[in-house]
Design a protein that fits this description.
The protein is mostly helical. It has a single domain, classed as A middle domain of Talin 1 (Up-down Bundle). Helices cover 76% and strands 0% of the residues. It has seven helices and no strands. α2 packs antiparallel against α3, α3 runs antiparallel to α5 and α5 (137-167) runs antiparallel to α7. The protein is elongated.
Length: 226
Amino acid sequence: MRQPGRFHLAMATVLLAATLSTAGCTLFRSGQSEKTASLLAVQGDLEYAQLQARETREAMDELAVAHERDLKRAYRAFSDLVGRMTTVGGRLVRHADGMHYRGDTYLVEPEKSATECQFPRLSETAGTRPLELGEAFEPVSRGSTLVKRALREFESDITRIRDHLSRFPNPKGVETMALFMRKAQVDGESLSYALEQALSAVQEAKRTQQSQTAQTEPAPGGVAPP
């Protein structure tokens, strides 16, 4: 019985070490990430926001039809999702503002390797060199701005619903919020559309980046293409 316990402890230690290593890299970059972001980071936040928006709308539907005995559970699920939506929304607003105020210098190249993450002082320019997107930058910036506007409407709706039901967690409270729930569904659809458009712009920008990278990389013989 003792041997399996030691094995499980060793595995847990390895997983914890890996988690701390990743977290350490993230923490080191956190101050910088508030000023810049990679296309991959922007894409990840947009995709996560898509998931959270969809799940929040589904939870709101469940809340609207929940029986009184299930109302508290449905409210907790909805409230948790509102919190997650607000968190990722903050990151999307930061991206939008960063691109608006800093222009294309906000988007930078990601770290090239684990070495640059583990030993950042050995590569001071890692993750800081601006991307050369040219005309592909403007659609990304415009898409982020549209997401920010749609996000504000949706967050305002769902926050109002959450706060009201925290004071009146009963069928009457849900009934009072029926109009706001319908508005939230419409605004949620607008947000989903804005997220799709923004993701399309990011994917196009990634193709531009990859094309430019391929043109500047050395050929197999060691000579960069003209």
